[in-house]
Amino acid sequence: MKGSASAFLLVSLLLTSCSASNTEAPNKLSLDGRWIVEPDGQVMLDPQTSGLVRWRDKLLTVSDGSAHPSQQRKLAKIDPQSTTLSSERMVITMTDNVLKSCFALYLGEKPDYEALVVDPDDDKVFYLVTEDASRSGGISGACAKRYKHTGSTDYPTLLVRLELKGDALLMTHVRPLQFAPEFKVGDYPNDGIEGMAMSPERMLYLALEKDMVGNPRIFSLLIDEEFWQNQDFASVSDPQLKTPAFDRGNHPINGMDYYITATGQSYLVAAARNDDEIWFIDLAKKRETIVVPLQFMAQVDSPDTSCPEWELMDNASIEGIAVDGESLWLINDPWKKNYLKNIQCNANEQRYKKMAPLLFKMPINPDWFAASQ
């Protein structure tokens, strides 16, 4: 990535020490983003990217329910080195098992997918989660009665299993999620689960944007051999991790992955979109969250005296994060309300108007974790 050498140098100088509480770097880490392009060189059109995973030698991303219709209900493959998309999308097809479920209509029309993970034991298996189903028309009859007590929104959050069989990406199973009343999740259709990560032990972690008091939350769910044998509610647990808490404002987690340090410490690495921060959340619950503040720079192809090679973004809105060794890949979700505020240079105006995303690479500094012990 052109210009990334300066970012790597800068991050190595940050966070040389951390206190026992949430600690920010003394300066923001600046990350250079490159436009994600189709094979013909055109930018990716309005994908509303909402998940990112490392898969084989590529990255996979998924679009949410507000994306351009051409991007929905499929996974897109990105070459991280060239930020070029594969010409073929992985189109999701429902099996008879899902077609017979209570959720077939919603999943077949305009599902709002908000996170993506790869099964740690089989990289041909993927998991998606849905968020906003308020435009679906709901469910009725026996289905509504069966899935009434969600503990959150009227239409339940759905966990979806995909399996790659040959060239076909099949949706094989779906289960609704249930939140205990004491979790006080609240009824927020568009502020639900936005991030997922899975441990080698098959514990699935789910990041909620906000609960009834406005704080982000993380829940967990064990995906064992029996998990997909029925379509009843799957009840999540609260692992009571040391996530940051806030007195005011919205501070959602919008992307998440699982990270193990060189010394064997396990963390959830989360993208805090509104705060332009990356959080490292200790799964052992011994250390407070490590907070890394960021700023995002967009690539300018034709720099001149008025437009440098990289321009500072007003709003990036990171919604996908993927661990790749000792680096992170980040992808942004062009937030339609704010994305045009980024327009500065003529070279990027049409890209922003097309709601085109960028890909960023961020090195992980081992000093952050050593200093937090």
Keywords:
about 375 residues; ten-stranded mixed beta sheet
Summarize the topology.
Layout: H1 4-13, E1 29-35, E2 49-55, E3 58-63, E4 74-79, E5 84-85, E6 90-94, H2 96-99, H3 104-109, E7 113-118, E8 125-130, H4 141-146, E9 158-165, E10 168-178, E11 193-198, E12 203-208, E13 217-222, E14 234-235, E15 255-260, E16 266-272, E17 277-282, E18 290-299, E19 310-312, E20 318-324, E21 327-332, H5 346-353, E22 358-363, H6 367-371
In short:
The chain has helices at residues 4-13, 96-99, 104-109, 141-146, 346-353, 367-371, and strands at residues 29-35, 49-55, 58-63, 74-79, 84-85, 90-94, 113-118, 125-130, 158-165, 168-178, 193-198, 203-208, 217-222, 234-235, 255-260, 266-272, 277-282, 290-299, 310-312, 318-324, 327-332, 358-363. The protein has 373 residues and is mostly beta strands.
Distance between the termini: 33 Å
- Major β-sheet, in short? 10 strands, mixed
Strand content: 35-45%
If you compute it from the alpha carbons, what radius of gyration comes out, rounded to the nearest whole angstrom?
Answer: 20 Å
**Percent range for helical residues?**
10-25%
Mean pLDDT: 92
Secondary structure class reads: mainly beta
Shape: globular
Number of helices: 6
Number of strands: 22
State the low-pLDDT regions, or none.
1-21
Reading the helices and strands in chain order gives: HEEEEEEHHEEHEEEEEEEEEEEEEHEH
